[in-house]
Amino acid sequence: MLIVERQQRLLETLRRQKAAQLDELARQVGVSASTVRRDLERLEEQGLVQRTHGGAVYVEQDKGPRGQTTVLAERMGTQVDAKQALGAYAASLVQPHMTVLLDGGSTVLFAAQQIVARPLQVVTNSVPVANLFADDDDVELMLIGGSLYPRSGVLVGPIATGCLADLHANLMFFSVAGIYGEECYNQNLAMAQVEQVMLRQTSQSVLLMDSSKFGHKSLTRVCGLEEVDQIVTDGGISEEWRGKLGERLRVV
């Protein structure tokens, strides 16, 4: 069982029961208590559960701190099968000794959870992504600076773009809010500006997005489709879009 699948099963159990003990969760997924403990740590870092003495409780995802919507937590619970498949394909592109640039977003987080290539350099503006690699001795992690955008846990602004301008990566994974016409769009200007710099600093860019986002325009333009090396999506994409994207498209 993949790590992301195991963590999703734990999350589904806690969502259904609201709370569970560590030993019970370990029996349900067929792994050791120490493995479940590590999984719960990751889920807690994403704001999905709260650990307790001997177990964990499910964190309702409709509201976050101060009543704000926890957007990333909500997105982690939608289109799960598609995002797992996209993430698995993306993770398969990562080879040992690469420098990988990881943007924020739920689909990129699914990909990050499934990267097994080591040793590795990881550069990211996402706090949840950074947390996945923070205690991995075979990963050289660089979390760039910036202002925290709390809805999705990414760092943005001039400090973030300035840090990225001096870096280079072999491979970049990112996601957007939609593709409309020949353009990719995102819902936040500061996030789009960070992605634009990332695209200039990588040898190969891979856009991960589920098929529901095609044909939708959002607040701000990120890039043109011709600037993206590979677009990865699920089988729900229409024939019209398949024809338009051609060889750049990968359906998983």
Largest sheet: 7 strands, parallel
Order of helices and strands: HEHHEEHHEHEHEEEHEEEHEEEHE
CATH class of the largest domain: Alpha Beta
Number of helices: 10
Whole-Å distance between the termini?
19 Å
Please report which band the strand proportion falls in: under 5%, 5-15%, 15-25%, 25-35%, 35-45% or over 45%.
25-35%
Order of strands, main sheet, comes to 6-5-4-9-12-14-15
Overall 3D geometry? globular
Radius of gyration: 18 Å
Count of discrete domains: 2
Helicity, as a percent range: 25-40%
Number of strands: 15
* CATH topology category name of the largest domain: Rossmann fold
Estimate the mean pLDDT confidence. 88
User: What structural class results from the helix and strand content?
Assistant: alpha/beta
Which tags fit this structure?
seven-stranded parallel β-sheet; 252 residues; 15 strands; three-stranded antiparallel β-sheet; 38% helix; alpha/beta; Rossmann fold; 10 helices; 25% strand; Arc Repressor Mutant, subunit A
Describe it:
This protein has two domains: 3-59, Arc Repressor Mutant, subunit A (Orthogonal Bundle), CATH 1.10.10; 75-251, Rossmann fold. It has ten helices and 15 strands. It has 252 residues and is α/β, with parallel strands linked by helices. The strands form four sheets. It has a seven-stranded parallel beta sheet with strand order 6-5-4-9-12-14-15, sandwiched between helices. A three-stranded antiparallel beta sheet has the order 1-3-2. Mean pLDDT is 88; it is low at 62-69. Helix content is 38%, strand content 25%. 40% of the residues are buried. It has helices at residues 3-17, 22-29, 33-45, 71-76, 80-92, 106-113, 127-133, 158-164, 189-200, 239-245, and strands spanning 19-21, 49-52, 55-58, 99-102, 120-124, 139-143, 147-149, 154-156, 169-174, 178-180, 183-186, 202-208, 220-224, 230-233, 249-251.
